[in-house]
């Protein structure tokens, strides 16, 4: 079946460096994408979302890039901080026709 | 007060016990969800309720029984569970079902089945 997946299960980054977390999706009909952050012992929290009519969206210290040609999504975190250590999930759906489909997640560890 | 509240946060039960997980949302949303989160697996959608009506049931074993008495409350009744059912159970809500937009998650109920 079609699914969303993540390229790397773990990522270690030096504090202050930029982080890039990648996500591949296989449903070409997907038109809405979202990133969640899940800290230990907590539920997933919304970070940023993007619709398929855009290829880039920026938030505070975060940027999401969407490449529909290769069905790839990435989350960039600028000046990574210890508080950014968490598991990051991407998710997608198709015009709201299905509930969000989640990838496995990438664990980001920030080295002080 | 968080938007979506789950109780209990931790639950240990034997295989013959009956227990329930509770979720309450204070966001005025019309759709509520149960997800199962196991180690090294994607979030698995279990049930969806829209306006108190069950709209999705993703082949979940009958030992899990959801209940949605109103649009603010969602329960997951558990009975004769198996050790492999040990996981984090996450409740979420959204403004409406079948729409784009974020899900708002609770902190989860960590279930251990002995």
Q: Indicate the proportion of strand residues of chain A.
A: over 45%
Distance between the termini of chain A: 40 Å
Question: Beta-sheet strand percentage of chain B?
Answer: over 45%
- Percent range for helical residues of chain A? under 10%
- Write down the oligomeric state: heterodimer
Give the overall form of chain B: globular
Structure description:
- The complex is a heterodimer of chains A (112) and B (114).
- Chain A is mainly beta and 112 residues long.
- Helices cover 0% and strands 54% of the residues of chain A.
- In chain A, strands 2, 4, 5, 9, 10 and 11 form a 6-stranded mixed sheet that branches. Chain A has a 5-stranded antiparallel sheet with strand order 1-3-8-7-6, with no helix packed on it.
- Chain A is globular, with a radius of gyration of 13 Å.
- Chain A starts with a strand and ends with a strand.
- The mean pLDDT of chain A is 89.
- Chain B is mainly beta and 114 residues long.
- Helices cover 0% and strands 56% of the residues of chain B.
- Chain B is globular and about 35 Å long.
Task: For this entry, give a set of tags.
heterodimer, A: 112 residues, mainly beta, six-stranded mixed sheet, five-stranded antiparallel sheet, globular, B: 114 residues, 0% helix
Would you spell out the secondary-structure blueprint of this structure?
The complex is a heterodimer of chains A (112) and B (114).
Chain A: E1 4-6, E2 10-14, E3 19-25, E4 32-38, E5 45-51, E6 56-58, E7 62-67, E8 72-77, E9 86-93, E10 101-102, E11 106-111
Parallel strand pairs in A: 2-11
Antiparallel strand pairs in A: 1-3, 3-8, 4-5, 4-9, 6-7, 7-8, 9-10, 9-11
Chain B: E1 4-7, E2 10-13, E3 18-25, E4 31-37, E5 44-50, E6 53-57, E7 64-70, E8 73-79, E9 87-94, E10 104-105, E11 109-113
């Amino acid at each position: 079946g079609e699914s969303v997946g993540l390229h790397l299960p773990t990522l270690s980054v030096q504090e202050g460096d930029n982080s890039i977390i990648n996500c591949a999706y296989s449903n070409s009909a997907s038109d809405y994408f979202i990133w969640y952050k899940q800290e230990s012992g907590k539920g997933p929290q919304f970070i940023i979302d993007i619709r398929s009519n855009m290829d880039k969206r920026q938030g505070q210290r975060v940027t999401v890039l969407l490449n529909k040609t290769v069905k790839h999504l990435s989350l960039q975190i600028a000046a990574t901080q210890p508080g950014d250590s968490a598991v990051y999930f991407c998710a997608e759906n198709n015009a709201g026709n299905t509930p969000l489909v989640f990838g496995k997640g990438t664990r980001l560890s920030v080295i002080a | 007060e968080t938007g979506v509240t789950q109780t209990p946060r931790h639950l240990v039960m034997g295989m013959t016990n009956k227990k329930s997980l509770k979720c309450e949302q204070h966001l005025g949303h019309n759709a509520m969800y149960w997800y199962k989160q196991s180690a090294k697996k994607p979030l698995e959608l279990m049930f969806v309720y829209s306006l108190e009506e069950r709209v999705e049931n993703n082949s979940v074993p009958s030992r899990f029984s959801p209940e949605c008495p109103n649009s603010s409350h969602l329960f997951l009744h558990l009975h004769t569970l198996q050790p492999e059912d040990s996981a984090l159970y996450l409740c979420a809500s959204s403004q409406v079902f079948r729409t784009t937009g974020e899900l708002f998650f609770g902190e989860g109920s960590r279930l251990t089945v002995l």
